[in-house]
Give the backbone structure.
Amino acid sequence: MRSSILAAALLASAALLPLSARAHDAAVSVTDVWARASAGAADTGAVYATVTDTGHADTLTGASTPVAAMAELHETINANGVMQMRAVPELKLEPGKPVTFAPGGYHIMLMGLKHPLKAGDSFPITLTFEHAPPVTVQATVKPIGAAAPGGMQGMPGMNHMQGTKP
Ligand SMILES: [Cu+2]
């Protein structure tokens, strides 16, 4: 009798193992990915997205895209009324808590664009994480004046980089 209980316990623990398999521990979904059209000869751009950790706690560590020499995580901050951007080396992700990259906040800064980003185009961008495998998604290019879904303000800090042409 004792041994059958032990056997049952062993079976139960064995059955639990697949549930904690590594495959589901680290996973991140990246949705609503878009970029602003670049202006004139500007060789910078910004990509916005919603990043949701669907597994265990993870960290967004970087991004890359074939359309730019470099992609960096940036944050727009209001420093005494002046909108400024600063690089964010990494971004902690909490399970089930979507992080929104949107004008006026977090964005993926593209530097050294290899060609202008035109409204209607799309291009791949890859996000990398500490634990989850890299996620490659297509970013859709929207017109320069495009605001975040929900009508958030534009990104004053970037206007000087995008010029004033229509
Ligand atoms: Cu930036």
Residues 46, 74, 85, 107, 109 surround copper (II) ion (CB under 6 Å). The domain at 25-158 is CATH 2.60.40.1890 (Immunoglobulin-like). Residues 73 and 108 are 5 Å apart (CA to CA). Confidence is low (pLDDT under 50) at residues 14-23, 150-166.
